[in-house]
Design goal:
The structure is a single chain. The chain contains 32 helices and 25 strands. The chain is an alpha/beta fold. Strand 23, helix 31 and strand 24 form a beta-alpha-beta unit. The longest helix has 24 residues.
């Protein structure tokens, strides 16, 4: 530390150290140590310190008064205590010079310090004493830190006046008694706040001002109160109507949490007033029907039709009514706001990253980088929010460059019971269900659901904070669940005490109506509203307020061009080749780097080789083929967004889409992205190295693609195996959204796959799982084996009028395999080939056995055939596994008229890979004289072995077996022949 001090010793110790930040906050122990050395030997400290210690005790205060004559050690100890509080975020600037020089053991100083400690305690843990439970099942806990006596304040001290001008947002001076009342009203009422863990002092002071300046008391006029009652009436009215009309049918009632509808209404209206134009909403099934009808404006008669099972069945499969999405436009003080409620499966919180991705796509579409126009709103249940890991993953995206949405507002319907938990000790491991948000420093407002005005206030603050600071914020509405988890459940079986309380609770609507009656707003107001709502229900009229029925949303996405497209229709293929001149131009721009850029030697070699590939001097490898696909798309005006762990460099160091200057000195400088510089006026190219997440990131990219049909959105797994972690996104969105909800999506997945001796978790992208999910023309599954094939399939994904998820099983060793490279002619005069015939089978009439395969094993088979000179064997690649290319395969099949043995060969174990799926497809082409067999690894519960020598033995055996005169002798690695007359296993 710099041991120099200012020359003015008249300043208090605290003031000096605040003025010189290098001495402040972290310096308490240093000051104490310096003073100890000064006492032992004044010459042991610097002269400036010695002089300052000598004169401090006698120095006048900065306000002109005389500083108290106190021992120096006490002054230093007092200062040390204060800076510790400052460092912990519990101390506020602005101490007077007198108090700064006053020791802890003097009565005025001690009382003043105690008052400040009391303020800090309430800001930090006052929420634990707040009255948040509408059922009032337990009394307030004993928290000594919130009692004045904990700090040595006795009853006689409560009338003592303390200076609060710079420590509490209220009067300049207050008695300890008045201060205590203000603190308890502010922090221990029906609204409790958690924000002191924020590291940004400005944000903490913002919350302190909001809470303390009005002591957390809402001020709502008569019209506002009537509106709250009307919304409570609507929320309760719908549930009671459905409960009597559709007895026992599942609807996941909101009863007990009706204030949530009030919160939704306030949030939408205030967001509109703050300039928000779009709100993307994600929520699970609790209260979803209520939101659809009373917030988004779905016609009750349409909901009733779904209950009556008379709704039109336009989808191949459909879904239950409490998973359905909806969109509408709502009038607000700031103009129309477009609401989109995302379709959501039963897997509760998995919709959250999908909504975040949708919000980011909408932000990008309208040029709104900070989210001032687009808001993500997520609604959670208390147990799911605390219990499901996708929430932690999604929160971790919040402030990262590629995934931020400018802050998300989280509303929690906290029914204090979760699903069926019968003991609070089993509900979670944290004090609050919201504790996970502390990891990203999101403030939390806990509010008693029986106090809808306080709910409104909490929502107002939450929205204002999000708009001011661009960060996540949570409103935890503590309520209860009147009925069971669903309407067929009997919760008293496991929660008898809780449901005795619930049975005695009149409901928030009645409580609030009675309160307004006392306030003189009408004794029959609540009953009149209830009758009016029931009449609307009986006639099926719209009950949501401010719905704009004829508004044209200006940023609507037109999916019409893609509705008729089928990816199994060969006629839907399009020209994906580019002219040679265009190729040369793009390649030249792609490989011309700024001369000021200092390259790593390995990267320099990559780009030198790419320049040669662009000129046609050497064949084009996988990385260059992929780059040219991206370059040609953005040059045509098609944006590209690529994300995943290590996507900029590429897990296998093949991509190098982002070049890092080796001489750079700052993180935000010295990077160059060639694909952002390939053409004048090109479309954006974005590549993102994601956090170490699969489920949330894949969900995000799915949500992004669902709102961006004109953008190539691609997610890359570091290893294809890691897609396992995101299986729920694949099952419940990627594979089934079209048949359940009629939602199209063009997301591309790049999944490295291949049996190469790297063990069970670095080998398989689980082709078999995707093939099991493949039906109804719902996705495209491809395994390209050449650089030109990846070029064409990526371009095809965007250039034809089809939007289906594309799953690409990409290679690892083939990224640099000489034979997987392609000549320029295959880029300038070709298409994606779903089936690649054997170009070396120049005499097809002599072929007796045809090996059918997909992926890397092709090259192993070609090498073995050359060694054996087995000209009677042809090797055919199936590059598209689904939709299965029957027409293309038939053309190849007919080319080998004398072949009697058709053998499927794969790297993967027999119970994995493509075999179980393709055997049925291949059997359709068998003729009477032909038979179909399998050659590959034996069945296994693990996708690959972990021992390199064992892998090599297995690989050698399956390759040898493909050429063996009698494959039946292979034993477990051969599953026998099938003929056209036999059913396929």
């Amino acid at each position: 530390m710099d041991e120099t001090l200012p020359e003015n010793p008249s300043q208090s110790l605290y003031q000096v150290l605040r003025a010189y930040s290098h001495l402040f906050a972290g310096s308490a122990s240093y000051i104490e140590d310096a003073y100890e050395r000064y006492l032992d030997d004044p010459d042991s400290v610097a002269a400036s310190w010695r002089e300052w210690f000598d004169t401090l005790a006698a120095a006048p205060a900065s306000d002109g008064g005389k500083a108290p004559d106190v021992p120096m050690r006490a002054a230093v100890e007092a200062f040390a205590a204060r800076v510790r509080y400052e460092r912990a975020g519990e101390w506020s600037p602005g101490w007077s010079s007198a108090s700064a020089a006053c020791p802890l053991d003097s009565t005025p100083g001690r009382k003043h310090t105690a008052a400040q400690q009391l303020i800090a305690a309430h800001r930090n843990i006052g929420v634990r004493w707040a009255s948040l439970d509408p059922l009032q099942r337990a009394g307030r806990p004993d928290i000594p830190e919130l009692d004045p006596s904990f700090y040595g304040l006795e009853d006689a001290d409560l009338d003592l006046e303390v200076d609060t001008s710079n420590t509490f947002f209220g009067p300049a001076t207050m008695s300890v008694h008045a201060l205590l009342d203000a603190l308890r009203t502010t922090y221990c009422g029906v609204l409790g706040a958690e924000f002191m863990y924020l590291t940004d002092q400005r944000q903490k002071r913002w919350w302190q001002h909001k809470l303390e300046s009005i002591q957390s008391q809402p001020a709502i006029n008569a019209d506002g109160k009537r509106h709250i009652l009307e919304r409570l009436t609507a929320a309760e009215g719908l549930e009671r109507f459905l409960h009597t009309k559709y007895v026992g049918q599942k609807r996941f009632s909101l009863e007990g949490g009706e204030s949530f509808i009030v919160a939704m209404d306030e949030l939408i209206q205030r967001a509109g007033a703050r300039g928000v134009e779009e709100i993307c909403i994600g929520m699970a099934h609790r209260g979803r029907l209520n939101v659809l009808v009373n917030t988004l404006g779905k016609l009750p008669k349409d909901l009733f039709a779904e209950f009556d099972h008379t709704a039109p069945e336009e989808l191949a499969a459909g879904d239950v009514k409490y998973h359905q999405g909806f969109s509408s436009d709502i009038e607000t003080p700031g103009g129309p706001v477009h609401l989109s409620l995302a379709f959501n499966p039963s897997h509760l919180e998995v919709v959250n990253p999908v909504v975040e991705g949708a919000a980011r796509a909408r932000m990008d579409r309208r040029g709104d980088p900070t989210g001032k126009k687009v808001l993500a709103l997520l609604v959670h249940g208390d147990a799911a929010f605390a219990g499901q890991g996708v929430n932690q993953e999604t929160l971790a995206l919040a402030q990262t460059r590629g995934y931020t949405t400018g802050g998300t507002v989280h509303l929690i319907i906290n029914n204090q019971i979760g699903f069926t938990t019968s003991d609070p000790r089993d509900l979670r491991s944290t004090v609050y269900c919201t504790d996970i948000v502390k990891a990203v420093e999101a403030p939390v407002m806990h509010v008693n659901g029986d106090h809808p005005e306080s709910v409104v206030l909490a929502v107002q603050w939450a929205l204002d904070y999000r708009m001011e600071f661009g960060k996540d914020v949570v409103v935890d509405i503590v309520c209860y669940r009147k009925l069971g988890h669903n309407e067929q459940d009997t919760p008293a079986l496991t929660q008898p005490l809780m449901y005795k309380k619930i049975a005695q609770h009149p409901g928030v609507r009645q409580l609030y109506a009675e309160r307004l009656a006392v306030e003189g707003l009408g004794n029959t107001l609540g009953d009149d509203m209830a009758r009016a709502y029931r009449a609307a229900m009986d006639t099926g009229k719209r009950t949501a307020v401010s719905v704009l029925g004829v508004h044209k949303y200006p940023f609507a996405i037109d999916w019409t061009p893609y509705l008729a497209g089928r990816s199994d229709d060969e006629g839907m293929d399009c020209r994906t080749a580019i002219p040679l001149e265009r190729w040369a131009s793009l390649a030249q721009r792609l490989t011309t780097l700024p001369p000021t850029l200092t390259l790593h030697p390995l990267v320099r070699k990559v780009y030198e080789d790419r320049a040669a590939m662009g000129r046609g001097d050497i064949p084009v490898d996988w990385g260059m083929g992929e780059h040219m696909a991206f370059a040609s798309l953005v040059a045509q005006g098609v944006p590209v967004r690529l994300s995943g762990e290590d996507s900029g460099r590429g897990t296998f160091s093949h991509r190098h889409a982002v070049i890092h200057d080796q001489n750079r000195e700052k993180w935000d400088e010295g990077t160059y992205v060639p694909l952002q510089n390939v053409a004048e006026g090109q479309a954006p190219f974005v590549v993102i190295d994601s956090i170490l997440s699969e489920e949330a990131v894949l969900g995000f990219e799915y949500g992004y693609a669902s709102n961006a049909p004109d953008i190539l959105v691609a997610w890359e797994a570091q290893f294809g195996d890691f897609v396992n972690v995101a299986q729920v996104v694949i099952d419940q969105f990627l594979a089934s959204a079209q048949v359940k909800w009629g939602r199209l999506n063009g997301l591309t997945l790049l999944l490295p796959h291949g049996q190469e001796g790297q063990g069970p978790e670095h080998s398989s992208a689980r082709i078999e799982r995707f093939m099991q999910l493949a039906a109804d023309d719902n996705m495209q599954l491809v395994q390209p084996t050449t650089a030109s094939q990846i070029f064409h399939v990526l371009r095809r994904q965007m250039l034809r009028k089809v939007r289906k998820p594309l799953v690409v099983f990409t290679p690892k060793s083939l990224l640099r395999h000489r034979d997987a490279a392609s000549p320029i002619a295959e880029f300038t005069d070709s298409v994606f080939r779903t089936v690649i015939d054997d170009a070396q089978a120049t005499e097809p009439d002599t072929v007796q056995r045809v090996l059918l395969c997909s992926g890397k094993v092709y090259y192993d088979l070609v090498k073995k055939r050359a060694a054996l000179e087995a000209r009677h064997v042809a090797i055919v690649r199936i590059e598209q596994l689904y939709p299965f290319p029957h027409a293309a395969l038939l053309r190849v099949w007919e080319r080998y008229p004398v072949a009697t043995e058709w053998l499927w060969v794969q790297d993967e174990p027999r119970n994995q890979g493509a075999w179980f799926f393709v055997q049925h497809c291949l059997a359709e082409h068998l003729l009477a004289r032909q038979r179909l067999g399998y050659c590959g690894r034996a069945p296994s519960s693990s996708p690959a072995v972990g021992y390199a020598h064992l892998h090599q033995e297995q690989q050698r055996a399956l390759v040898d077996g493909a050429f063996a005169p009698d494959p039946a002798g292979l034993g477990a690695s051969f599953c026998g022949w099938r003929t056209h007359a036999q059913p396929v296993a």
